[in-house]
């Protein structure tokens, strides 16, 4: 094969946890359309703020015009001052063109809330439900024993125990989840217990 | 599931003098030590090394041609070998170039290989920009959620809720669709009870957000706390921290950053955004073999990703690249400069198209005025610089003292409680003062703002004389009562922010400190600016003002003072120089204010350096004991290599392996009885002439693989590191050839080499270890940890504070 790296270049790495990758992909897919979303008519405006002038009180004018028409003459209507005063009045007014995308905002907030909700549910599951449904594995030691014993250096080959059963999808997912949990446990020990990193 | 009994325990090492970090139970298992382990599952032959993996689907590895999987990878909390990584990349590139002449397919492969870097930068920019947009919009919404909710659609924040409604000129911030909590619950928003209810809801929401943040961090990704920049600096200098830039860390950091910022804590999101961008970079590296397998190339990508992170945080692509160059990166080849700029631009452009703040602005506090300033104003600017330097030094000292207390005493045992208490204190103190109630970014935006005729905030409540207004240019005016109220409220806010940030930075939630420092500086600057403005207005006949500030002219811009103050404080804390000025002038969109910014930044850096040498990130690196060899300091002592090398005079002699006389069993004994990460190979024990250097990890992998796969390798087999092994009688077991894992060009210095040169060599080449010879014979070894300990010793610091390899 001349090009052995090709399939590996784009092989997905969904080893220890599928959900963050899915979330990222989802995020990417959903964020792209809002970025190019066509602007609905209610999402653009020209806003002119005119301060009090002589005996006229201050007022804010909003109008749905394009950027080139966003000036005092097009937006301020009805014009409160007579014709010869219009220029002086308009000099005081400040006009800004603003646009936003309500769809983007809505989509992003909903994505964010759903991710937070999913994480909360997962955390609740791990804390409450998981210990109940998981039967204690006969050849696993409890995790809190890890920090006590130091390993003797050994190069002797030890037959792998969990080798044969990690083949069905469920088993693989469970294996991945166990590995991830151990990893988080390790990180937690480094950061929270031994304070070796991140003060 | 404890893997102690399995063979992976052989990769572990206990407390080591030399190189390995003692993390009991820390797996050096390739499959679990890392989010994205260096060895891919696709290499089926490797699976037998992981105790828990599948067995048996191994392909026969030909020792003479293909390197074993696992050889050339690194363990967690170790330093990479830059020289080896770079030469491996050059080899790979050479091979691809040579093969490209063979067929069109290979040619296409070489072209795609060359473009893979640019494609990767594009993807990093897109992902970083999108995540920054998500963070900005969500944080903006959740911050406003503490005060009320929008009836027109709960996903709108205050500003967007009032977008559609017709507001009057006098009541520009109120609109009927936005209901504060007391209005929602009680039906009206006035009165003492409504105020108390608002207060209560504010504190409750703040507590909920921060509690959720710290629980998520603790439960899912403990590496997601803190700022991230010290650790990224260390990673970019060659250190390996597996999982620090992984998928879960990315997700949790993004989510909890929003929560932490929204809870009203005195922290910012710029530092964590750099971490988020580097996570994106690391994750996307796995799509390309070129970057996945090579740690040095990956660090180039991470430098570019860090630039993209700062670029989206400040809307400053050039500033981002300079920040990456100055603060974060260790080796920054010129090729990376162009690619970082590309990534930063793509990220900024993506963020702009998501448009989180409306009006296509990238940052909330974009400054739009262009008033001129006068040379005499340099005096207050330099005063602000001195204030920034003093505050920076004070903040670093107290924050490090507090973090050290958190590390060593019982305070560190209650991280969740600590976060809750700090949030409660912050929220309770922040609500009464309007300037601390609003989010820090909004505060900075308001302080940077120059008061125009249409501004209705308290800070702009000057005594207006409408008859003398000419157009939009307002003259200096006397301060109205609103300004005086704002002044003392701001002073209180300043005091509160100065003290509470000390306790907030470093907590177990993502926390940055750019925004709080800028806020402190902006408040101080604005106060000084208003003071100078009023001084000029009331005493315009003084000699210093009469020349340039006539009555009726607009000479003093307090917004500019706020900006200069912000730059000064940020410079005092982080000791940034060029990148700070460039970020600030990209924020303002013009070159008018470069001279005041530079004056303030330089003054603050000098003042702060006079008090304490290190910036906040270097101080945290030293606090945590990361093996970071500072590239900016000069080593100026007259020690020599023989003073630093191991073994010392009283130690047993150097453990070496001979080139062709040791058996497998001897080598295994050496490996198990010592904890060194590598061994020199000599011709013979008598001559001690150097052949090369072999790494422990490579030895272990090769020997185990040989025992399994090769026929005839037993404990009494000779290990041979040379090309031509000595002939053996036919009855003896077959020879194990390990020349392929031997590094034939280890760096050596003589024992009389001054340590200045040795430190320089370590810095410039990125070495892990260096052999010391005397009269051509091998005498000892100097490792990076020895160098760091020596530097610490020379600087009278505790040499045992260097914890890691």
From TrEMBL, chain A:
Residues 1-37 form the signal peptide. Its main location: membrane. Keywords: Membrane, Signal, Transmembrane, Transmembrane helix. The keyword Cell membrane does not apply. The chain crosses the membrane at residues 107-129. InterPro entries: TMEM9/TMEM9B. Belongs to the TMEM9 family. This is TMEM9 protein. The lineage of its organism: Eukaryota, Metazoa, Chordata, Craniata, Vertebrata. The gene is Tmem9.
Automatic annotation (TrEMBL), chain B:
GO terms for cellular component: early endosome; endosome membrane; Golgi membrane; plasma membrane; synaptic vesicle. It holds the Pfam family Voltage_CLC. The chain crosses the membrane at residues 115-135, 199-224, 245-267, 273-289, 301-325, 375-394, 414-431, 486-507, 513-532. CDD domains: CBS_pair_voltage-gated_CLC_euk_bac (cd04591), ClC_3_like (cd03684). GO terms for molecular function: antiporter activity; ATP binding; voltage-gated chloride channel activity. It catalyses: 2 chloride(in) + H(+)(out) = 2 chloride(out) + H(+)(in). Coiled coil: none annotated. It comes from the Eukaryota. Residues 29-48 are annotated as: Disordered. Keywords: Antiport, ATP-binding, CBS domain, Cell membrane, Chloride, Endosome, Golgi apparatus, Ion transport, Membrane, Nucleotide-binding, Repeat, Transmembrane, Transmembrane helix, Transport, Ubl conjugation. PROSITE patterns: CBS. Residues 645-709, 741-801 form the CBS domain. Proton-coupled chloride transporter. Functions as antiport system and exchanges chloride ions against protons. Important for normal acidification of the endosome lumen. May play an important role in renal tubular function. The CLC channel family contains both chloride channels and proton-coupled anion transporters that exchange chloride or another anion for protons. The absence of conserved gating glutamate residues is typical for family members that function as channels. Belongs to the chloride channel (TC 2.A.49) family. ClC-5/CLCN5 subfamily. This is Chloride channel protein. The gene is Clcn5.
